[in-house]
């Protein structure tokens, strides 16, 4: 009764091939649930030398070190000997499911499993061990969940096992990884396309030199928060990894404009550049990125404290297809930066300029008139903007979905009226952040009642907003999430015949 309906649904959704794979997987699991009646010990994966390195425990689902594995193996061996004396179990490799399904189909099913599941399957039988450890099942590996237990031999073991099959590897947060392990990885996995080394604090220029020498297909690299990376790393990447398209070098504080120049000249196909907290980078470095990377779609320069309007001018002049721009916490920027973006980046969709305290209404007027496709704007702590900026956005930017005006203390109900009556209000506006806007009152909530798509509004520390105003807004927009905070009411001074109390100092006075 259920299977025909389920089969019809899956066929419409995934096609007959996908439906067959799904039913095969369900059947495979059900068959072994009935066949296998024994306690499985911890799974392990052997390296080419036969040493147990990668470990997944059924309870903790984590990777363990080699010593822990040895202790657990002894316990499991003892338990299995006890089980074998009381029961006879059919050989796993002779199971019907292994004979009826071709190896290619089994490999295809195994390819949908994650690391933990593959480790478990590797312990079922010798045949499944071969299937689970086949390199084709290890094309994308994310070890972030096991970051505390990942050491160099684990990476070397995975590299040797996966070889050219591995396309994506994430070692985010694995602080025990060193240059030696990644050198072996670079030599073994030359088809790697995505590599995440975020917060791997022990890697240095040697790793990037190995990547540049062997991994020419690398397209996405994250080496953010790696303090030992210097300009030599960017030079090596620029020479060898010319196919790089997405680069994150945030918070690598030793990098300077010379490194960015070497990277930009070699990797001209970069379309996403993330360089937060590059305090030594100046306008010249950003200018090289803008000049040589003509395909740039996203640039994030949050907290690059040394850049000025000249850097943004280069971006506006060269990156006409830019969609995302973050220049938050760049305190030296002025309205000239907004003018440059308005003149050159007409396709801009997202702009983040939080804490740029020198921006005024004039700059946002020039931006809004030219960047009519803006969808998300973060203007938090742009303390000089007034209701005039909101008027420009309401008139010229009809596609705004999310707008943050937190700590913009000059915004009043009139500005919110412009937003509420603008073209973006009825269809597009979803998120509005107004926390710490002291001049906002319940009248602003009245102006927003026509925003039928509004999903969330922030009203923290808006002292003139009342509970009654929020209730009226929720009556009109029942699905809206209102985040507000009301300070406890201060208790009134004591009245009546209560005895007045003074401290000793007041009595003396």
TrEMBL record:
<keyword id="KW-1017">Isopeptide bond</keyword>
<keyword id="KW-0449">Lipoprotein</keyword>
<keyword id="KW-0833">Ubl conjugation pathway</keyword>
<keyword id="KW-0636">Prenylation</keyword>
<keyword id="KW-0832">Ubl conjugation</keyword>
<dbReference type="GO" id="GO:0031146">
    <property type="term" value="P:SCF-dependent proteasomal ubiquitin-dependent protein catabolic process"/>
</dbReference>
<keyword id="KW-0597">Phosphoprotein</keyword>
<dbReference type="Pfam" id="PF13516">
    <property type="entry name" value="LRR_6"/>
</dbReference>
<comment type="pathway">
    <text>Protein modification; protein ubiquitination.</text>
</comment>
<dbReference type="GO" id="GO:0019005">
    <property type="term" value="C:SCF ubiquitin ligase complex"/>
</dbReference>
<protein>
    <recommendedName>
        <fullName>F-box/LRR-repeat protein 2</fullName>
    </recommendedName>
</protein>
<dbReference type="GO" id="GO:0016567">
    <property type="term" value="P:protein ubiquitination"/>
</dbReference>
<dbReference type="InterPro" id="IPR001810">
    <property type="entry name" value="F-box_dom"/>
</dbReference>
<keyword id="KW-0433">Leucine-rich repeat</keyword>
<dbReference type="GO" id="GO:1990756">
    <property type="term" value="F:ubiquitin-like ligase-substrate adaptor activity"/>
</dbReference>
<dbReference type="InterPro" id="IPR001611">
    <property type="entry name" value="Leu-rich_rpt"/>
</dbReference>
<dbReference type="InterPro" id="IPR057207">
    <property type="entry name" value="FBXL15_LRR"/>
</dbReference>
<keyword id="KW-0472">Membrane</keyword>
<dbReference type="Pfam" id="PF25372">
    <property type="entry name" value="DUF7885"/>
</dbReference>
<keyword id="KW-0106">Calcium</keyword>
<dbReference type="GO" id="GO:0016020">
    <property type="term" value="C:membrane"/>
</dbReference>
<comment type="subunit">
    <text>Part of the SCF (SKP1-CUL1-F-box) E3 ubiquitin-protein ligase complex SCF(FBXL2) composed of CUL1, SKP1, RBX1 and FBXL2. Interacts with calmodulin; may antagonize substrate ubiquitination by SCF(FBXL2). May interact with PIK3R1. Interacts with PTPN13.</text>
</comment>
<dbReference type="InterPro" id="IPR032675">
    <property type="entry name" value="LRR_dom_sf"/>
</dbReference>
<dbReference type="InterPro" id="IPR006553">
    <property type="entry name" value="Leu-rich_rpt_Cys-con_subtyp"/>
</dbReference>
<keyword id="KW-0112">Calmodulin-binding</keyword>
<dbReference type="GO" id="GO:0005516">
    <property type="term" value="F:calmodulin binding"/>
</dbReference>
<dbReference type="GO" id="GO:0031347">
    <property type="term" value="P:regulation of defense response"/>
</dbReference>
<feature type="domain" description="F-box">
    <location>
        <begin position="95"/>
        <end position="141"/>
    </location>
</feature>
<keyword id="KW-0677">Repeat</keyword>
<dbReference type="Pfam" id="PF12937">
    <property type="entry name" value="F-box-like"/>
</dbReference>
């Amino acid at each position: 009764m259920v299977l025909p309906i389920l089969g019809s649904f899956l066929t419409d959704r995934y096609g007959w091939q996908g439906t067959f794979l799904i039913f095969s997987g369900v059947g495979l699991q059900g068959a072994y649930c009935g066949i296998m009646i024994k306690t499985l010990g911890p799974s392990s994966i052997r390296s080419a030398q036969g040493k147990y390195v990668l470990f997944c425990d059924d309870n903790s689902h984590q990777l363990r070190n080699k010593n822990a594995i040895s202790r657990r193996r002894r316990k499991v061996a003892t338990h299995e000997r006890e089980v074998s004396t009381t029961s006879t179990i059919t050989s796993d490799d002779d199971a019907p499911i292994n004979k009826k399904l071709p190896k290619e189909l089994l490999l295809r099913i195994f390819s949908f499993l994650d690391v933990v599941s593959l480790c478990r399957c590797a312990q079922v039988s010798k045949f499944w061990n071969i299937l689970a450890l086949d390199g084709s099942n290890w094309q994308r590996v994310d070890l972030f969940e096991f970051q505390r237990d990942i050491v160099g031999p684990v990476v070397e073991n995975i590299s040797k096992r996966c070889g050219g099959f591995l396309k994506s590897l994430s070692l985010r947060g694995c602080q025990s990884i060193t240059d030696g392990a990644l050198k072996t990885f670079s030599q073994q996995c030359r088809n790697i396309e995505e590599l995440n080394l975020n917060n791997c604090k022990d890697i240095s220029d040697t790793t990037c030199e190995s990547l540049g020498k062997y991994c020419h297909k690398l397209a996405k690299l994250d080496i953010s928060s790696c303090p030992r990376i210097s300009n030599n790393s960017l030079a090596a990447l620029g020479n060898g990894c010319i196919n790089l398209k997405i680069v994150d070098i945030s918070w690598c504080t030793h990098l300077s404009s010379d490194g960015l120049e070497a990277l930009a000249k070699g990797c001209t196909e970069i379309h996403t550049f993330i360089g937060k907290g590059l305090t030594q980078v100046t306008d010249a470095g950003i200018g090289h990125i803008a000049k040589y990377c003509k395909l740039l779609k996203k640039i994030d320069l949050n907290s690059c404290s040394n850049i000025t309007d000249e850097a943004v001018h280069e971006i506006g002049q060269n990156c006409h297809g830019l969609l995302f721009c973050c220049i938050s916490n760049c305190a030296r920027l002025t309205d000239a930066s907004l003018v440059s973006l308005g003149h050159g980046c007409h396709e801009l969709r997202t702009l983040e300029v939080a804490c740029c305290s020198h921006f005024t209404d004039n700059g946002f007027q020039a931006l809004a008139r030219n960047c009519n496709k803006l969808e998300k704007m973060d203007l938090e702590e742009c303390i000089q903007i007034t209701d005039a900026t909101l008027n420009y956005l309401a008139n010229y930017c009809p596609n705004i979905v999310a707008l943050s005006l937190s700590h913009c203390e000059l915004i009043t109900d009139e500005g919110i009226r412009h937003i509420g009556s603008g073209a973006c209000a009825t269809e597009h506006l979803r998120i509005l952040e107004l926390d710490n806007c002291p001049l906002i009152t319940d009248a602003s909530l009245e102006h927003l009642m026509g925003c039928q798509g509004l999903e969330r509004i922030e009203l923290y520390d808006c002292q003139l907003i009342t509970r009654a105003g929020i209730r009226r807004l929720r009556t009109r927009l029942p699905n809206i999430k209102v985040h507000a905070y009301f300070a406890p009411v201060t208790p009134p001074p004591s009245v009546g015949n209560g005895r007045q109390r003074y401290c000793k100092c007041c009595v003396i006075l």
